[in-house]
Amino acid sequence: MTPPNGSSGVITPPGTPSRNGHHTVQEVESITIRFAGDSGDGMQLAGTQFTNTSALLGNDIATFPDFPAEIRAPAGTLPGVSGFQVHFSSTDIHTPGDVLNALVVMNPAALKTNLKDLEPGGYLIVNGDAFGVSDLDKARYKVSPLDDGSLKNYRVVRVSIGKLTREAVAECKLSPREADRCKNFFALGLVYWMYERPLETTLKWIRDKFGKNPQFVDANSRALKAGYNYGETVELLPVQYKVAKAKIAPGTYRKITGNEALALGLVAASMKAKKTLVFSGYPITPASSVLEQLADMKRFGVKTLQAEDEIAAAGVAIGASFGGAIGVTATSGPGICLKSEAIGLAVMTELPLVILDIQRGGPSTGLPTKTEQADLLQAMFGRNGECPAAIIAPQSPSDCFDIALEAVRIATRFMCPVFLLSDGYIANGAEPWKVPAVANLPNLEVKNITEPNGAGWGGAAHENGAGDAAKYLPYKRDELLARPWALPGTPGLEHRIGGIEKQDVTGNINYDPENHEHMVRTRAQKIENIALTIPDLDVIGPADADLLVIGWGGTHGTITTAIERARRKGQKVAQAHFRYLNPMPKNTAEVLARFKKILVPELNSGQLLWLLRAKFLAPAQGLNKIQGRPFLVSEIESAIDGMLK
Amino acid sequence: MSASATALPTLSTKDLSSDQEVRWCPGCGDYSILAQMKKALTTVGVPREKMAFVSGIGCSSRFPYYMNTYGFHTIHGRAPTFATGLRLANPDLQVWVVTGDGDGLSIGGNHTIHLLRRNVDVKVLLFNNEIYGLTKGQYSPTSRPGTKTKTSPVGSVESPIRPLTIALAAEATFVARTIDVDVQHLVAILQRAAAHKGTAFVEIYQNCKIFNDGVFEYATDKSVKAEHVLYLEHGKPMIFGKDRNKGIRLNGLKPEVVEIGKDCGPDDLLIHDETLSEPTLANLLSRMVNPEFPEVVGVLRAVRKPTYEELMDKQAADAVAKKGPGKIEDLFKAEDTWTVE
Ligand SMILES: Cc1ncc(C[n+]2csc(CCOP(=O)(O)OP(=O)(O)O)c2C)c(N)n1
Ligand code: SF4
């Protein structure tokens, strides 16, 4: 019996006999599995349940949900296929996996669109009931792939999932349609059996979810158990696979997606800052879920507003910041376009603002449900005039929590807009997150000025004639060039701000040419000063590496895995990952100068590469993929091989 | 409670004047509005640090710079959004939006509508001069048909927006109109707006001396204005004219101008009621346009409905009452957790 090959190494090759002695259980390091079916088949749900169970079992996990752009494309067609990939492991993993060890397909369309990712020899679990003439036709198959020998390289397990599910729920008084909707739990049960997972987590979920409809609780539970028992009784596979607990740092964990982590991070930040969180957004994929979650957190002092458009969303957030709250807005690329003018105002008025850009494929409406990293230059330059803003990017779903706090820190410390560039891949992907101790969260408390700063802020008279010590000077700056944040409602600090150029210190309208240049440079320097408060760029790997691989954002896990593999092959490769994109860490130039070869993989045509070349004349090369999909580890691996040839 | 805690702050108009030089064209109607605004605010009982003026872009939108209160001069058309955010952050502030007809009804029409339908407690002053002032004289969405400007050299072919009708359609809870040079009326309306809870929408006829001088002459020229303006008073019949002998009567669903004593008796006239829950009467008044009708000034509608902030606060309070105030730890553990030893 050959174990699944590919990424999952077999740990204990000799199988241990199973309970009834006919088949064996093998322990493997990790497994990647994908559930694929029609958008109506509940594949996201099955995948999520499988993930939760695996996470609670103590595996490390990484997921990759892949949604069609259409909400419900006609059933059974190629555009309607929805997939959910789970990588679960007994070791520390960073990606949802390149190659599938097992693929569950509920219909021919799912088979057609997903088969290419299944490893040779991998398990293909097929819902055999869905391969009738019309099903095949909808997926544009002339002959059934189950019959024409085209699947001979895989271990095809054909199960009448539809029929067996209907039999399993026969007593539950469901309509045929309702009965059919339990198919995903049958399939899930089957997979639970294959990988020796317990059913409890999902049974409990079913009870919580369908509590009001006992017949649904009963039916879905039966379907799940039937799938499991079917696997066991018919001895479906010669081997069951076992993935041990991962050795992870002690602590309390939960599963978290990127957008969940952003929402939690923002609320935690507002609590640590002792400020109201005012969040305003306009629905857009893949950002909407941040607004959806925060809208349900009213008892945490969060105020959310679903604005009439993205311009309004930005306006509400900035107005809230003017009023002393933490103003946050979230959107995706097309929404950033609309917010640009308002962001320029926040730059000009030097107010804190956090802008979450959950990037997706562009331009224009682009690929709404697919990931891309192509808004970096928009965040960097996409406004009129000289208009610098801070830019940071999370590297994984759980990192979204920390980076949300960091965004709030920078915005309030420096009085400036901060772009947080997440993406669809991070937003929807899930991984275990170690719940932090509240005491260890950064203290983000902000001091709002309550007395005029004329005197306390470096003396009375100065060149702009604003010598009145009793007067609040909105643009009198501190050592890092941040201006003081005075809140409406504070007696004695009445002042006016706005988007017209202001005289430094006094904040009076001013069209003086020298003042404008001074202010443009000051605003830029203020953003540069953020670098004084962030960590240096960390280079992981040998100091004399032949190649430095630089990444940013959601490609972190894939790049890390590729480099780990390269090192195992004996290649001398180092890694640097930019969490801070504007400003970049202070030592960036020095790091870039240390390496002769630099590779920059990005899910765009080379935007960070462009910045690195322009700013540092770095002799870097790009590896660029613009397909709406994340990198595969193998793609980065072979680029590394290519560079080291 | 001590006497000083209950005493209303007294402000002088000087207290409300900022040190910034006012830079509107001489003769601009904005001067009068600024002066009456300060006068009105001396009596509303709100300390000046609790007042905030938020504006978009346009001549009128320079207004916040001239008030010694908190002020935010934002971007074209979007003032309602910033004002909403400001109220959410600090519900203690009295927030005024100052906007022009281009700012508030063209580029910002959408935001104006949504501010009104949400009933955020913000007072919107629409300075209507039926022209774009700051960009030097292009027609605006309120310009009358045929208006000749730089961008409509042979006359505008567009139907003008009726600001009050739009406001009513957006479910505004307070809708009024007044005129820059009618100082007493202006002060009174501003005070009423200040006292309203919810979004107040006030259209102010404002003369642009430079690009649209005299568009409202029919309503401001002493010799003719009585014939062209109807001052609304709650509970009173709708009478106008120099001799107070004209009125508005309803003929079926249509208003008509009648002469008292000739066409009808005083009891046949429409009686104004600003408190009607259905804004049908207000809507009808908002659509009366010179020269066919006198144009109404005064309060068309003033009803009390829960504000956006009140409803939001209630939801938050309910959420706390149900599960207690949220702690960070609760948030972290909202999903299943597991412990690794
Ligand atoms: C995004 C944007 N578009 C256009 C302009 C130019 N602009 C400034 S004010 C204005 C119109 C002002 O007209 P109105 O609101 O009627 O105000 P007024 O100047 O008459 O008081 C325009 C088009 C701008 N500042 N920003
Ligand atoms: S252009 Fe018109 S509206 Fe603007 S300041 Fe001059 S007179 Fe007033």
TrEMBL record, chain A:
Domain Pyruvate/ketoisovalerate oxidoreductase catalytic: 40-229
Gene3D superfamilies for the chain: 3.40.50.920, 3.40.50.970, Pyruvate-ferredoxin oxidoreductase, PFOR, domain III
Domain Pyruvate flavodoxin/ferredoxin oxidoreductase pyrimidine binding: 273-442
GO biological process: response to oxidative stress
Keywords: Oxidoreductase
Record-linked InterPro entries: 2-oxoacid/accept_OxRdtase_asu, PFOR_II, Pyruvate:ferred/Flavod_OxRd, Pyrv/ketoisovalerate_OxRed_cat, Pyrv_Fd/Flavodoxin_OxRdtase_N, Pyrv_flavodox_OxRed_cen, THDP-binding, Transketo_C/PFOR_II
Taxonomic superkingdom: Bacteria
NCBIfam families referenced in this protein's UniProt entry, alphabetically: OAFO_sf (TIGR03710)
PANTHER family: 2-OXOGLUTARATE OXIDOREDUCTASE SUBUNIT KORA, PYRUVATE-FLAVODOXIN OXIDOREDUCTASE-RELATED
Descriptive protein name: 2-oxoglutarate oxidoreductase, alpha subunit
Species annotation: Fimbriiglobus ruber
From TrEMBL, chain B:
A Gene Ontology BP annotation from the UniProt entry: small molecule metabolic process
Gene3D superfamilies found in the cross-reference section: 3.40.50.970
Annotated ranges, domain Thiamine pyrophosphate enzyme TPP-binding: 57-204
Entries under Pfam families matching the protein: TPP_enzyme_C
Keyword tags: Oxidoreductase
GO molecular function, one term: oxidoreductase activity, acting on the aldehyde or oxo group of donors, iron-sulfur protein as acceptor
Listed name of the protein: 2-oxoglutarate oxidoreductase, beta subunit
Organism encoding this protein: Fimbriiglobus ruber
